[in-house]
Amino acid sequence: MKKYFLIIIISLFFLGCSNNENSNKNPYIPNYSFSVDLNLNLPLYSNLKYVSNPIYYADVGARGIIVMYTGSGYNAFDAACPNQELSSCSTMTINGINAVCSCDKKEYSLFTGQGNMPYPLKQYRVQVVSETLIRIYN
């Protein structure tokens, strides 16, 4: 009886685990490997010390990245429209706390990455290295 109980508990533990590798797939945005450090003491990134002040960082990901401090942590999303093929209009722009796709004018929340479309914004990992340094990577 104890063996069966132990097997049930262990199997529930393994079934409850998830693999985050597949949760960020998007057929329109390729997977790029990169790592970039942002020094929050630099004027270009100092807005990231305050809630709801997103910045755009070019040259990484598919179309650059949009980074925002949410009050409880940092979010980093690819600046490519998640529901469009990569094209000349697929770079998103910042509109307050939203990212707007130039192709179809759809808006996505920079707090959640969600919009009213099939795919959310492609999110990247953010590591707080120190009070003045964050690392964004994929």
Description:
Helix content is 11%, strand content 30%. It is mainly beta and 138 residues long. The longest helix has 15 residues, at 2-16. It has a six-stranded antiparallel beta sheet with strand order 1-9-8-4-3-2, with no helix packed on it. Strands 5-6-7 form a three-stranded antiparallel beta sheet, with no helix packed on it. A hairpin with a 2-residue loop joins strand 5 (92-95) and strand 6 (98-101). It contains one helix and nine strands.
Provide key terms for this protein.
138 residues; mainly beta; six-stranded antiparallel sheet; three-stranded antiparallel sheet; 9 strands; 30% strand; globular
Poorly predicted ranges: 18-22
Distance between the termini: 46 Å
* Order of strands, widest sheet: 1-9-8-4-3-2
Largest sheet: 6 strands, antiparallel
The assigned structural class equals mainly beta
Percentage of residues in DSSP E strands: 25-35%
Estimate the mean pLDDT confidence. 89
Number of strands: 9
Form type: globular
**For the CA atoms, what is the radius of gyration?**
18 Å
Order of helices and strands: HEEEEEEEEE
State the share of residues found in helices, binned by percent: 10-25%
What is the number of helices? 1
